[in-house]
Write a structure and sequence with these properties.
Blueprint lengths: L2 E2 L23 E5 L2 E5 L10 H16 L1 H8 L3 H14 L7 H16 L17 H9 L14 H13 L16 H4 L5 E2 L3 H11 L14 E6 L2 E6 L7 H16 L4 H16 L2 H13 L5 E9 L10 E9 L1 H12 L1 H7 L14 E13 L8 E4 L3 H7 L1 E6 H11 L4 H5 L3 H26 L18 H17 L3 H4 L6 H16 L15 H16 L6 E6 L2 E6 L2 H21 L2 H12 L4 H14 L4 E5 L2 E7 L2 E8 L4 H11 L8
Parallel strand pairs: 3-14, 4-5, 9-11
Antiparallel strand pairs: 1-10, 2-3, 5-6, 7-8, 8-9, 10-11, 12-13, 15-16
Bound molecules: zinc ion.
Length: 674
Amino acid sequence: MALAYALMNHSCTTNNNGSTEQDDFQYMVEQFADLKVMRYRIPGWDSLNLRQKTYIYHLSEAALAGRDITFDQNYKYNLMVRRSLEEILKNYQGSRQDRDWDKFVVYLKRIWFANGIHHHYSTDKILPEFNRSYFAELINNAPGSVFPLRNGESPEEFSERLTKVIFDPGVASKKIVTDPGKDMVVESATNFYEDVSQEEVLAYYENMKNPEDHSPVSYGLNSKVMKTDGRIVEKVYKIGGLYGPAIEKIVYWLDKARDVADNDQQKAALDKLIEYYQSGDLKAWDEYNVMWLNDNNAFIDYVNGFIEVYGDPLGMKATWESVVNFKNMEATKRTEIISENAQWFEDNSPVDPRFKKDEVKGVTAKVITVAHLGGDCYPTTPIGINLPNADWIRKEHGSKSVTMDNITYAYDQVSMESGFLEEFAASREEIERQKKYGSLAGNLHTDLHECIGHASGQLLPGTSPEALKSYSSPLEEARADLFALYYIMDPNLVTLGLLPNPDAAKAEYDNYIRNGIMTQLTRIELGKEIEQAHMRNRQLISKWCYEKGGKDHVIEFFKKDGKTYVRINDYQKLRAHIGTLLAEVQRIKSEGDYNAGKTLVETYAVKVDPELHKEVKERYAKLNLAPYGGFINPVLKPVYEGKKIVDIHIEFPDDYTEQMLHYSKAYAFLPTYN
Ligand code: ZN
């Protein structure tokens, strides 16, 4: 619910002054497999004072301290694999000039990128492109390596076990299995459960819940469930509990941050967060979230904790993540206009009045400059965040919503010269419109999605928030996207000063439909279907609108020189269809109409046209681009006089491997087997 990810390949950009131009910072670092590694800048850093810089520095150390937690949560042998491969990388004595070595290095880079051995997006296990005998040669020719053997294990037994985990396609083949026909807990490789069945887990938590409780904690959010001596137990993430050594370090830095926080409210919130990390008590977590939420005017802010549940097939357990940021004052004016008009948006939407909020509460929105990424947000980062996730808090206190301007800016800079738009856009006019307005309209879409899209609407009394089960994520994303798309074409947005003219909204429609119905297929392997919630949502909207506008050719496929293109012929009719679908998706959510939700998703969001898929992949391959992006963090370097910090310098390293090896060494707070 809470994250928005970058649509790939924004094609062009506008800088903060609104003009289109490229700057000379080197944003692109390197590319391998289907991944690209970039850098981001921290505009405004020099105008921060020493206290602010120090605060950000301490929060950033807290963000880095949890890195190994994320690896271990993703799969129980991720740290074993990563640490072994890093030993080989450092110590291998054989040739580093041949193709097999290159393949080994790429494999390790992919593991760093995914925080584990499963692809960060498809969650399929990443299989190496070198073979077992080459791997044996690597292990045997890396003298001085310290491999993470288990107690009593011989080196031979260890390398056999490691080889199996890496090469056997049947071992931990998928991180998240979402097939409702299977035991998702048993089949998924995530490390949230061990030796328990889905049925046992559900029964375990069902017992805890009290339907009378109007502020229920997020049961199971911060623990692993396993069986010990035939009994089901929860191992809680806390100091003294699971991941204790890393959490201690996080708390150490949060405590230092507390002393230089922006205001007393923030200090109190940090105290509460520390209390939660010490106790593991989810009541304290909720209390913290309310405090964090109420600190609306924070200039410097952060996310730090076990938050998003995308990594759990049951959507209950959260992966550790962190983002440190400060407010972009100039760009925040844009979202303030949206927030001030939140009630107007709610009142004028095409949704049935029964499903609307009488009063839209707590829509706070700001544009932020990211200063550090950690855990599940590193190196792949969201471009927008809307938190907290607990439904009762959102209902009673609202939510905080941010968009990450310097991250989208870096994306835009990198894709500016990619040739992607020239390959897939339907016309010269579309390309020019995109170059002129694409970045601005894209950012506005994200703002609308996060600030009012997720915050709008309400459930009918008696409807369970969990009624849509495994279909809830794509439908919730669709709801927020539809809200944004419906309003971006509203003439009032030009009046409000959010868009320069109606043409800018067309750029967003072009981009959205082209991506949802066609170009996002570049991310899917041939023969596979769409599984990821955001991608499902985008195809759902695009295909549904295509079908709905069929006889009027509102959206049209056409061929030119043997290539398929898609164009929008009637933007106003398309907007009307978007409004109709928005009303229906809101109805499904408000009434908890599981069957209708399922039908929508299964009919429009999952299946892929194999012909078009193949064509798009072939055209894309020729561009030699990577569909997924991630970022190297800048380095914050304190300057000391004696023990006192007198300044914090900022550096922008451009060596991905070096940063990963540094992190693996400097933030190795967990044992290999937890
Ligand atoms: Zn969203």
